[in-house]
Amino acid sequence: MMPDYDVIIVGAGPAGMATAITAQQSGLSVLVLDDQPDHGGQVWRDIQQNHQHRQSRSFLGEDYWKGHQLAKAFHASGAEIQHQAVVWQIAHPLSLSVTIAGIAQNLSARAIVLATGAYERPVPLPGWHLPGVMTVGGAQTLLKASATGADGAVFVGTGPLFYLTITQYLDAGFSVAGVCDTGAGLGSPSTLLALPLALVQPKMLMKGLRWLRRIKAETPYFAHVSDIQLEGQDHVEAVAFAHGKGRPKTKMRIPSSHVFLHQGVIPNVNLSMASGLTHHWHHRQMCWHPICDRHGASSVEGIYVTGDASGIAGSGAAVASGHITGAALAKALTGTTIPITALWRHRVKRLQHRALRPFLDRLYAPLAETLTPIDANTIICRCEGLTQAQVTAAMGLGVAGLNQLKAYCRAGMGRCQGRMCGLTVQALLADHHKIPIQDMPYYRLRPPVRPVTLAELAAFHQADPDI
Amino acid sequence: MEQQRNWDSIVVGGGLVGLAIAYGLGRLGRSCLVLDAGDLDFRAARGNFGLVWVQGKGSGFPPYADWSMSSSQSWPDLAAMLHEQTGAALALEQKGGLDVCLTEDELSTRIAELTTLSQHQNGRFQFQALDRQALAEIQPGIGEVAGATWSPHDGHVSPLYLMRGLHDAIHHQSGYVKTSCPVTAITQTGVDIQVTTPDGDFTAPRLVLAAGLGNRALAPFLGLEQAIRPQRGQIMVTEKLPLQIRYPMVTLRQTAEGSIMIGDSHEDAGLDVSSTRPVMAEIASRAQRILPSLSDAKIIRSWAALRVMSPDGYPIYDQSPNIAGAFAVTCHSGVTLAAAHALDLARCIHDGYLGPHLTAFSERRFDVSPA
Amino acid sequence: MFRRLDTSLSEITIFWEDRPLTAYQGELVASVLLRHGISITHHGPTTGSRGPYCMMGVCFDCLVDADNRKAIQSCQLVAKDGLRLNRHLNLAGTGHPNDA
């Protein structure tokens, strides 16, 4: 049976769009599936719509507008795109299950590319579940998607997205009640050692420094923040924390009903894990990466992973990776090669962006108390409302791993399928067993990786009992 | 605790069968070490639907019908004991259960089967046949089905709370569940039995092999075969929903938390534990036909596990012919039989011999010669 | 309080618990709710009160009931004129019998 497409790409962010452009240009039939109403992924969210109103959204900054060029090229490429398409399973022979406008379909392809990007690392602090607490990325999305923001918010965290969003907030004219920087600063030796490589991208480093200088000048800024508590009953009311280099640290409390958290981003591995790809623990990024070769080919034949979904390197690297994967697909499926100069240009670009990572990953490493929470009241599993005390009690029974722990306390059984709790539970259990975190395997993930209704599933059987 | 090398009993396998027996032995005063394999190994117990089921069991094999019935009748005792000892609430409900039949043929076959079963059991087993109208009265929203058979003996429980409760209770009894510790050899040393593991050797005068599919490789040490094979079953689970399924059905039940479990399949898939689309779609289709009101319910996770199937589907309980005090046990109904295992079977193992009511479950019924 | 900078797009009306709210063409429901000070969209026995957190569909805390569909992620739902929304109440179960 002829596959429906040569290539189906899941995700229309930087990597997905770049893959589509190169693959389509090489004569392959390409379908891109994205779960949002407009393409651009998260980093260039709503780029099409916003470009039309560029004047009133100038606060989004130059890096954001760069996405418009790629989006235009994507449109011009002729690749087919379906928006609000939710992919929930990959099956063999190679096909995927996707729901579009409430109807589930099976689409087959010769190759599937996961360009599913990243999402924010969970930040389990006491009170992080309270209404009014959101991720910094979420605040930025509101800015991009709806030109909407909150006055008097407190930003807690560290990382490029953290400083960028605060800068955008200042440019947009929102008042900021506090910036609690949890970064360790340049102090640590391993960070300094990574600095020379990062100097490959001096402009990016200078940009980061400029952001920081401005934030220090224009907001109530606190450095070396830790011991964070988000206070409130039904809604967040204040952030309490300790800050500074002094010992003991200075205590502080900022009242606010809007708190935005950020401790970096991690690859979205639910679809790749549920599809049987092998993954490895990336020590420096402290998260799981699917194992891929330099073209993005994974351990499963026909499935590729590209962009941040295969490891965090930012939008610049994601675009380059997408083109490289597109080129590999062209080679594998039609035997054609893209001009060698173009391929090398992408490779060099990707190398340059990746060179910055060792430095950024160390400089903006997550705060320890957000990796292994110590406050017994901290919610670990948001879906099931499980506290650190409840999870610890289940661990005390003597469980070998995350899946047995899940059976005993329900952590990971909710709608989010472990996206919000998996890394935290893994860290807590590894700690409990006194083994390195990479020796603690993750939840065993299965399809559907996004919720699907009984009717959608049943319709498959009614349409074709053998499908 | 596990540094202790001498125990009164060792149970190989920390699933529902192993934990229930270990708990039962602990109640009889035996210190019990449970040796369990790894987190990612095949673990039938995690795929369990949670039915405490009697109707239809052993319709071709009366000893199994009796065994299931008596286990179901002692289940409230087990639940009460675990609750008293650990505070665990197992969400046990034994108000009856339904086996829904989609077609008239299915229904009449079912009725005939259960009638025969009831006769064999001298009326001890009770059931009622319900046409669609009668069924609709006790299960509002029932769909295009022919009817169902209802039995007051049936019920359900949370298999996960049961596992956790047993595990907890074993600790209270000063037993110990040692995880990530696979057993590689079993030998007789004097009057004791010795097991070899990567973490060293352990000895005890009683040994129970309850390692599910793992029994196959270890049974020869006991002079037994345990000719079991894997059979895959797939289950799906919905988000938590308001209570709408009052009585468990064979393929549909609503848990105490509100999620609805939807099953199931019986597949020969070797050791493959993937969730597969055609099967999930078929299960969904059947569920939608039984309860159309579930159409918009969202499936948020799926499961597949390997049942431990004997050649005829009935349990295998044997005493080792060459190692005194060693027993091998296997079944695929670990939840229903948990009470029988904890109370009756554990007593037999403690005493050192399987009673006459268990003779029929020996693997000798397969005319198998030990390795 | 959340506020919107660009009010030039055409307006539509959606309803939250029968209360009319102004929305903009193409706006995500979560954004509309937050702009009107509604940060609690669902309650459940194990979760308590929750509202939008990630704005990208991975946390499942921004659930609402939309027209006759239950437990829909409001950050993935584009507002359409006349949409009727309600807080999602999780009426299932009563919590964990095995609370530590």
Q: How would you sum up this structure, described in words?
A:
The complex is a heterotrimer of chains A (467), B (371) and C (100). With 467 residues, chain A is of the alpha/beta class. Chain A folds into three domains: 5-119 and 266-338, FAD/NAD(P)-binding domain, CATH 3.50.50.60; 122-263, FAD/NAD(P)-binding domain (3-Layer(bba) Sandwich), CATH 3.50.50; 372-435, Arc Repressor Mutant, subunit A (Orthogonal Bundle). Chain A has helices at residues 14-25, 47-52, 62-77, 136-146, 160-172, 189-198, 202-218, 270-274, 314-334, 340-355, 357-363, 368-371, 388-395, 402-409, 422-433, 454-463, and strands spanning 5-10, 30-33, 80-82, 85-91, 95-100, 103-114, 118-120, 133-135, 148-150, 153-157, 176-181, 221-222, 226-231, 238-243, 250-255, 259-262, 265-267, 279-282, 287-290, 303-305, 379-381, 386-387, 452-453. In chain A, the strands form six sheets. In chain A, strands 1, 2, 3, 4, 5, 6 and 20 form a seven-stranded mixed beta sheet that branches. The longest helix of chain A has 21 residues, at 314-334. In chain A, 59% of the residues are buried. The mean pLDDT of chain A is 94. Chain B has three domains: 9-49 and 160-228 and 312-366, 3-Layer(bba) Sandwich (FAD/NAD(P)-binding domain), CATH 3.50.50; 97-152, no CATH class; 229-309, D-Amino Acid Oxidase, subunit A, domain 2 (D-Amino Acid Oxidase, Chain A, domain 2), CATH 3.30.9.10. The mean pLDDT of chain B is 93. In chain B, helix 1 (16-27) crosses helix 8. With 371 residues, chain B is of the alpha+beta class. A six-stranded mixed beta sheet of chain B has the order 8-2-1-12-18-17, with helices on one face. Chain B has a four-stranded antiparallel beta sheet with strand order 14-15-13-16. Chain B contains eight helices and 18 strands. By secondary structure, chain C is mainly beta. Chain C has one helix and eight strands. Chain C has one domain (11-88): 2Fe-2S iron-sulphur cluster binding domain, sarcosine oxidase, alpha subunit, N-terminal domain (Ubiquitin-like (UB roll), Roll). In chain C, strand 6 (63-66) and strand 7 (69-73) form a beta hairpin. Classes of the chains: A alpha/beta (467), B alpha+beta (371), C mainly beta (100). Strand 23 (452-453) of chain A pairs antiparallel with strand 16 (298-309) of chain B, so a sheet runs across the interface.
